[in-house]
Amino acid sequence: MLIVYPDADPQFKKLLTDELLNPLQFAEIRVYEGRPETQEEFVNRVKDADGILLGWSIPNEVIAKCPKLKIISFTGIGASNFIDLKFAASRGITVTNTPGYADNSVAEHALALMFSLAKNINRNHQNVTRGIWDQSNMIMEIKGKTIGLIGLGGIGQRMAELCKVLGMNVICWTFNPNKERALKLGVTFTSLEMLLEQSDFVSLHLPLTEETRKLLGERELSLMKREAYLINTSRAELIDTISLVEFLSSSRIAGAGIDVFDEEPILENNPLLSTSNVVLSPHIAFNTPEASKEIFIIAINNLVQFFNGINQNIVI
């Protein structure tokens, strides 16, 4: 049996210790560093594979030339953005992902963006380094403020826990609200409109689907308080960026903390770059040593369980 990791990032390759790979000792393992430069090279790397540990995307033309391939274990959550799931299914190939690997790291990053906005860290840092001693602008206390979480999966739940420790009032909108979850997590479920109207901070924690694409547009953003902040560590496409920039530029909302962008790396003409009341980071919320190790633990276990006849973390 052959398992191939065809596109290992050099940083991630260092994490693949013997200890992590030990559960796959029943198979031959081939690890290639860097993404294949041509489709032909890609085919040569994976054509004999029974299983693929995938870090990036794989073209259908490559999958079609893998007659033995039974499973693609994707090291991430949004497998549908990198793999044609319907095509894979038509070839009898199972696709799995790694839910929960970065719940804590992403929630912590969202919290860091919230603090940076509330305490005006960026502007105060820039002022001090330029010799400007300006204490005229008050900063915000977090305790007692209301945070509205849009989505309550693993990351949203961790965010709720952290915010409650800070003494915040946590309200939430989700597709699947129920009393048991509300009581367990100590949150209040509400409508999306009410959440936007009441929150001092709005933080998104949803996957990108056709239902969630541009969930927040001009109408939704208009419901937010002028002094409220928006935080997005999920997917850029959840928000209509043009409307967001308009609301930020006109101070119709106070600011935004953004870790995800419509095109990545961010383009030079992205209007968010010329907006003063934002804190931006390069889609890095997931990138901690702990989360990187966890992603491989889950992805490798998906392979092990599959070849033991057990399906887990299958992407539908």
List keywords for this structure.
about 325 residues, alpha/beta, 7-stranded parallel beta sheet, 12 strands
Biggest sheet, spatial arrangement of strands: 8-7-6-9-10-11-12
Compute the number of helices.
13
SSE-based structural type: alpha/beta
What is the share of helical residues? 25-40%
In quaternary terms, these chains amount to single chain
Q: Specify the overall morphology.
A: elongated
Report the end-to-end length measured between terminal Cα atoms.
25 Å
- How large is the share of residues in beta strands? 15-25%
From the alpha carbons, calculate the radius of gyration and give it in angstroms. Answer: 22 Å
Q: What is the count of β-strands?
A: 12
Topology pattern, helix = H, strand = E: EHHEHEHEHEHHEHEHEHEHEHEEH
Largest sheet: 7 strands, parallel
Q: Uncertain spans, ≥5 residues at pLDDT below 50?
A: none
* Overall pLDDT level: 96
Description:
α6 (103-118) crosses α8. This protein has helices at 10-13, 18-21, 39-46, 60-63, 85-90, 103-118, 121-129, 154-165, 179-185, 192-198, 218-221, 241-249, 289-307, and strands at residues 2-8, 28-33, 51-54, 71-74, 94-96, 146-150, 169-173, 188-189, 201-204, 229-232, 255-258, 278-280. By secondary structure, it is α/β, with parallel strands linked by helices. The mean pLDDT is 96. The longest helix is centred in the last third of the chain and has 19 residues, at 289-307. The strands form 2 sheets. A 7-stranded parallel beta sheet has the order 8-7-6-9-10-11-12, sandwiched between helices. It has a 5-stranded parallel beta sheet with strand order 2-1-3-4-5. The chain has 13 helices and 12 strands.
